[in-house]
Amino acid sequence: MPEVLTAPLVVEFPFTRSLGPVQSAFLTGLRERVVLGVKTADGRTLVPPVEYDPVTAEEIRDLIEVAPIGTVTTWAWNPAPRRGQPLGTPFAWVLVRLDGADTALLHALDAPGPDAVHTGMRVRVRWAQERSGAITDIACFEPYEGDPPELAGHSGRFENMVTGIVAPARLDYVYSPGRAQSGYINALSDRRTVGERCPSCRKVYVPPRGACPTCGVATAEQAEVGPRGTVTTYCIVNIKAAHTASDIEVPYVYAHIALDGADLALHGRIGGIPYDQVRMGLRVEPVWTAGARYPDHYRPTGEPDAPYETYKELL
Question: What is the reported pTM?
């Protein structure tokens, strides 16, 4: 059995969202060191504020200032902070019910250790040195035993209101292609393409998934295919994607290629021929670059085009 491969992968993108009047006032308030909640029709104060009552679904817009100090209602110790979390040293995740609020706000509590944290402890907001109108304007909470501050009763009206935020989204994970695809990837490093043959229908699938997609039975018998193949269908790409290599100019052709001996077409870029001369049935072969683990592209072999009958079942 080949060694099963693993690789770290990251999915990352900026998420842009506009803010309604309630969230706009809340985040602008944080920028100005003011914490706002919203009042429901039955008198509850929700912090952080929402635009609709979670119980009655009524729209709520009655903003009210609450204190920047409160009480820990529950907590969990975080011994190993991860990238992007509020503090770089071990801290407690806490739910804090600010004075004047009926709900709790989730944030970090800076404490020397779990023995210093308990439900019911009093804490206050530690403001970030630089604030922009985001939840990170609250750097964290810290223990507090002093008197409550006097509130100005802010209405939620500010100058230069924050109307939108950009929240970076990122997912770090480790991908394992499994036994079948690990064998396929390892073979590519030797410039060979291998699929797996179904023990029932005898079709060869490339890249292999470890099971026949038609019969549903497990596959294990490797079968080398190609290296030449036939273009079964294609598209002309007119927009250059961010990850496209700098030396690839649009338009170019991306195609389904049925390698000789395979019963499933794989994807590949077609080069070495003007894009408007690529056609179904075109015979192609892989082009490898030095040190590459997969073909850079496929180019015409010069053979006559394959008859449609030979690949129609692969469309």
Answer: 0.63
297 is written with which tokens?
A: 């592209």
How many Å apart are CA 54 and CA 41, to the nearest integer?
Answer: 12
Residues 163, 20 contacting (CB under 8 angstroms):
no
Read off φ and ψ for residue 277, nearest 5 degrees. -110, -5
Report d(CA 259, CA 230) in Å as an integer: 6
Residue-wise pLDDT tens digits, 232-280: 999 999 987 766 666 788 899 999 999 999 998 999 999 999 999 999 9
Dihedral angle at the C-alpha atoms of 107, 112, 116, 122, nearest 10 degrees? -40
Q: Supply 276's token pair.
A: 């408007």
Give the separation between CA 257 and CA 231, rounded to whole angstroms.
5
State the amino acid at position 142 in one-letter form. E
How many CB atoms neighbour CB 72 within 10 A? 21
Closest CA to 181 of 232, 219, 231, 217: 219
Return the C-alpha torsion angle 257, 179, 210, 181, nearest 10: -10
**52 Cβ contact partners less than 8 Å away, ≥ 6 residues apart:** 58, 59, 60
**In whole angstroms, how large is the CA radius of gyration of the chain?**
30
Cα–Cα dist 66/36, whole Å: 6
Least confident segment among 3-12, 141-150, 291-300: 3-12
